[in-house]
Amino acid sequence: MQLTKQDIGRLLAKQGILIAFAVFMIGFALANQRFIAVDNIAGVIRSSAILGVMALGVTFVVIGGNLDLSVGSMMSFSTIVVLDLHDKIGPALAIPAMFALTLCLGAFIGFLVGYLKLNSLIVTLGMLSAIHGLTLTWSGGKNMDIADKAGTWFSFFGQDRIMGIPVPILIFALLAALLAMLLSKTPFGRKVYAVGGNGQAATFSGIPRARVVFYTYLISAFCVAVAGLLQASRSLGSQNTVGQGMELEVLAAVILGGASLLGGSGTVFKTVIGVLILGFIQNGLLLVGLDFYVQYIVTWAIIILAVWLDVAAKRGRLWSPIA
């Protein structure tokens, strides 16, 4: 069977990211044998867990036809709050208090985008700055550290292992499994796809569009709170800008996983794959000797490539018919 140019174009549009990833993996493995070592692979997955947890929540937002650019600053807020409250009221109360405050931020964004029908890009871009200011106000512009690092059980979430598996990986896997079932096996998940695919049609079908969008932002905020918990527990201290810039990495991972910026498509499983693709590419760049700041350029290039392939998959060809 002979493949035509159009067939190759469709293949690249649908599977181009995976093909590019395979090329990257082979190249990195040939450049540095340590890349495929078991300890390196485990380290990449563990370091990607925080980003991955955030990406799981943003997947719901993107499938619902919206964006969330506030997750980076919100993660900084969650991390600083739980570290600050740890020494004041103890970890048993600090953790639920942090989750409650983070969910309030997510609810506020969900209200603006869902019920007031404001543009999600504008709202979350504004909240990015607002939450960053809130974080600096809470911390007084200072970084946070736990006073008694040796005597707290709080380190369990970020540093301990269960049956030899790091807890962050287990939390990431468990949360991914639960959210995958929520998205693919429940009426709510079908409503998210319907709202993202055609919001107006979903409304005419009796689906409460505003409520669905509101809940997607609550899910995103919950995942950010989990990520903040993991970050704080891993280091038992943090800068007040720890999440700065992560919103682009999260969005890149979600898009790499096949979620469309136009809404209505994507899965949790593919988002996990997108997170791992991004993690292994960044790790490979470091192992071949490139400086860490090259990652920013590569992340930008990956976002452009993923968006291009997403649009190409919709029209069935890599190039615009006008061109």
Automatic annotation (TrEMBL):
Keywords carried by this UniProt record: Cell inner membrane, Cell membrane, Membrane, Transmembrane, Transmembrane helix, Transport
Subcellular localization(s) per the UniProt record: Cell membrane
Domain of life: Bacteria
Record's bilayer topology term: Multi-pass membrane protein
Entry-linked Pfam families: BPD_transp_2
Membrane-crossing residue ranges in chain numbering: 12-31, 43-63, 93-115, 121-141, 162-183, 212-230, 250-281, 293-313
PANTHER family xref list: ABC TRANSPORTER PERMEASE PROTEIN YPHD-RELATED (PTHR32196:SF21), ABC TRANSPORTER PERMEASE PROTEIN YPHD-RELATED-RELATED (PTHR32196)
Protein name: ABC transporter permease
Lineage: Bacteria, Pseudomonadati, Pseudomonadota, Alphaproteobacteria, Rhodobacterales
